[in-house]
Write a structure and sequence with these properties.
By secondary structure, this protein is an alpha/beta fold. 32% of the residues lie in helices and 23% in strands. The structure holds zinc ion (ZN).
C-alpha cells in the first residue's frame, strides 16, 4: 500500500513511534488526536490524505493502549530511543525557612552518641542540620556526645565520621564532649554554690518513686557546704558507683517530669575509650548538651520531637548559669516500616544468625544502605521531600526512598541482560552474528557493548512460561521468532524477519554458549506488620548474565533489565544485591 509516496510500513512506523511516545508521556494511554498532530508535523504532506490514514492510526493507537506502560517503554526503546525523554527534573523542593536565622550567623550541630552504628535516622537528622547551616552560610559542629563510658566505643566515632562524609556532609568544627569534662565539673560546682544542685544518696528505686510522686528526698535540704564536700568526695572516689549522684534543684511539682530534680552527674566505674579511668564522675546527657550547645554557640537545634520535653530542662540549666538558649525546631522522627533502628533489636537479629553483620543490606545502618545500592543523594533528597515539622510520629515506607533512588539511578546506570531461572531457547533459521547494544537507551555517554550470539539462548523461566506455540516474540535488540514448542526444559522457535511490532513481547536473553552465572540477593523488610520476623527477608535468585557483566565495577549499581537495580559485591564471582525494582 502506498499513501502519498510513503510506504505503508514506513507510515505505520511513524504512527507507532508517536503513539508510543504519547502513551509513555501520559501514563500509558495515547490520545488519538495528539498522535495525529505529531504525525502530521513530521509528514505535512499527509494532510490531504488524512481520511485514509485514520483507520491505520486508530488500529495502532488501540494496540499501543492495550500494552502495559512497561511494554510501551521497552518498545519505544527499540523503535525510537531518542524520543524516550529523560525523566523530567523534579523541581527541587526547599525546606521552610529557619526562624530567626541571620545569614552567616547560623550554627548547627551533628550530635551523635558514638555507641552504635550510624543509621538512616542519624543520616536524615545530620542532613537537615547541615542543609540548614549551608542555606544560611552558617557553620556546623560535629560533636560526639560521649559522656557515657559504658556505652561509648572508639570504633563508632569513625563510623559516624565516615557516614557523614559519605552523605556529603562537611562539618566545620569537631569535638568530643568528654574533652570538656573538667569544665563540666566547674559548672557543677557553680550550681552547688548557687544552691541549685545537691548530692543525693538515695537508692535508684527510691529516687524513681519519689520523682514519680513529685516528692523531695531529705538530701535536698543539705546546705551548700555539705553538698560541696560530698561532691568533692564523689570526685575523689570516696563513693562507689550508684551510691551518690548530683541532682539539679528543679521543680518537683512540674508536669514535665524531666524537671523533677534530675540527676546531672553520676559515678561510672568503667573506663572511657579515650580517657580510660582518669575520670569516674560523668555528666548526664541533658547537662553536657546544654553546656556544649552554649560553648559551641549553637543558634538552632533541629531534632526529633521525642526530645521536645527536654528543651525546658536544658534551657533551665543554661539560665541558671547565665547562658543564652538556642532556638529549637522539632520534626517528627524518621521510622521505616518493618525496620527497627534500635540497636538492641538489630543485635538480636545478628545474634540469632539471621544477619551476617551491621552492614546487612536489610539493615537501616549506613553500611547496610550503601551495600544495598542506595545513593547518598537519594537520602538527601528524601530528607528534604519528607521531613515533617510536626510532633506526629511518622512511619515511612521504604518504597518512597527507593523511588527517589531509582529516579537518580535510572539515567546513569548501565543496563545489562540477566535471565533469572534460565530456560534454553533455540531459534531455527537465525544466523549467528555480533550485536552492538547501547548500555542505555538515551544516555549515549554510557557507550555500547558487543554481544556475540548463535541460534542458542537462555531466557527467563517467567518469560518462557508465558509463551505458547504460534506466539510472536522479540529478543530485545536482536530478532523476532515464532514459538514452535514450549516445554519445561526448553523453548523452540522459528526466526521471523522484521523489527519490533506493537503488542509483541520483548524479552531479555543471554547467548547459549557464553554467559556468566550470577547470584542476586534480594533484601526485604525484617519485620512483618504483625511484628513477626519476616521469614523471606532475604531471597536468593540465580541465573545467567551476559558476558559483559565482567566489566561491572565492584560497588557499581547497574540495572538488570526488567529485574531491577543491583549493586555488585566486591567478591570473586558475580554476586549482586538488589536495591529495588
Ligand atoms: Zn536523696
Amino acid at each position: 500500500m502506498l499513501i502519498h509516496g510513503l510506504e505503508g510500513m514506513e507510515l505505520e512506523k511513524i504512527i507507532l513511534k508517536w503513539a508510543l511516545k504519547n502513551a509513555v508521556d501520559h501514563g500509558g494511554k495515547a490520545l488519538q488526536n495528539a498522535v495525529i498532530a505529531k504525525v502530521l508535523r513530521e509528514e505535512p504532506s499527509l494532510k490531504q490524505k488524512i481520511k485514509e490514514i485514520i483507520p491505520l492510526l486508530e488500529d495502532v493507537v488501540s494496540k499501543v493502549n492495550s500494552m502495559s506502560l512497561d511494554e510501551q517503554i521497552r518498545l519505544l526503546e527499540e523503535v525510537s530511543p531518542d524520543l524516550l525523554e529523560q525523566e523530567k527534573k523534579v523541581e527541587e523542593k526547599k525546606l521552610p525557612p529557619l526562624p530567626n536565622a541571620v545569614r552567616g550567623r547560623v550554627v548547627t550541630r551533628l550530635p551523635p552518641e558514638p555507641s552504635g552504628h550510624m543509621h538512616i535516622g542519624h543520616a536524615m537528622s545530620g542532613l537537615l542540620n547541615y542543609i540548614y547551616a549551608k542555606m544560611y552560610d552558617g557553620k556546623v559542629w560535629l560533636r560526639f556526645e560521649d559522656t557515657d563510658p559504658r556505652k561509648v566505643k572508639l570504633e563508632y566515632y569513625e563510623n559516624f565520621r565516615k557516614g557523614y562524609r559519605w552523605l556529603g556532609i562537611e562539618w566545620d568544627y569537631e569535638k568530643n564532649n568528654s574533652e570538656d569534662i573538667e569544665l563540666f565539673y566547674d559548672y557543677a560546682e557553680k550550681l552547688i554554690l548557687l544552691g541549685k544542685a545537691y548530692v543525693c544518696f538515695c537508692p535508684v528505686e527510691k529516687i524513681r518513686a519519689l520523682r514519680r510522686d513529685g516528692l523531695e528526698c531529705d538530701h535536698r535540704r543539705h546546705d551548700v557546704d555539705g553538698n560541696l564536700r560530698y561532691w568533692r568526695m564523689m570526685l575523689d572516689g570516696r563513693f562507689k558507683e550508684g551510691k551518690a549522684i548530683l541532682r539539679l534543684v528543679g521543680d518537683m511539682s512540674s508536669q514535665n517530669t524531666t524537671l523533677r530534680d534530675p540527676a546531672i552527674f553520676r559515678i561510672v566505674e568503667h573506663p572511657h575509650p579515650i580517657f580510660g579511668s582518669r575520670y569516674r564522675v560523668w555528666p548526664l546527657y541533658d547537662f553536657s548538651t546544654s553546656i556544649e550547645d552554649n560553648l559551641c554557640s549553637i543558634t538552632h537545634v533541629l531534632r526529633t520531637s521525642e526530645f521536645a520535653f527536654r528543651d525546658e530542662l536544658q534551657n533551665y540549666i543554661r539560665e541558671l548559669l547565665g547562658m543564652s538558649n538556642p532556638i529549637y525546631i522539632e520534626y517528627s522522627r524518621f521510622e521505616f516500616k518493618g525496620t527497627p533502628v534500635s540497636k538492641r533489636k538489630l543485635r538480636a537479629i545478628i545474634e540469632a544468625g539471621l544477619a551476617a553483620g551491621w552492614d546487612d543490606p536489610r539493615f537501616p545502618t549506613i553500611e547496610g544502605l550503601k551495600k544495598r545500592g542506595i545513593k547518598p543523594e537519594a537520602i538527601r533528597e528524601f530528607t528534604i521531600l519528607h521531613t515533617g515539622f510536626s510532633y506526629a510520629k511518622r512511619e515511612y515506607d521504604w518504597s518512597l526512598l527507593y523511588a527517589v533512588n531509582r529516579r537518580l539511578l535510572d539515567p546513569q546506570a548501565r543496563r545489562f541482560f540477566f535471565v533469572p531461572d534460565p530456560v534454553k531457547l533455540t531459534i531455527e533459521g537465525l544466523e549467528p552474528g555480533v550485536l552492538s547494544i547501547p548500555y542505555h537507551p538515551t544516555n549515549k555517554n554510557l557507550g555500547v557493548r558487543k554481544v556475540e550470539y548463535t541460534c542458542n539462548f537462555y531466557i527467563s523461566r517467567l518469560d518462557a512460561e508465558s509463551m505458547k506455540p504460534r506466539d510472536l516474540v522479540r529478543l530485545k535488540y536482536l530478532a523476532n521468532f515464532e514459538v514452535v514448542e514450549v516445554s519445561r526444559e526448553e523453548v523452540r522457535g522459528l526466526w521471523k524477519s522484521g523489527g519490533p511490532i506493537q503488542g509483541m513481547p520483548i524479552i531479555q536473553w543471554v547467548p547459549g554458549e557464553s554467559y556468566h552465572k550470577v547470584k542476586v540477593l534480594i533484601p526485604d523488610i525484617l519485620y512483618l506488620d504483625d511484628g513477626e520476623i519476616n521469614p523471606e527477608s532475604l531471597k536468593i535468585v540465580e541465573g545467567y548474565g551476559e558476558l559483559n557483566i565482567e566489566d561491572i565495577e565492584f560497588d557499581e549499581v547497574v540495572q538488570f533489565e526488567r529485574f531491577g537495580f543491583c549493586r555488585r559485591e566486591p567478591l570473586d564471582g558475580y554476586l549482586f544485591i538488589k536495591a529495588h525494582d
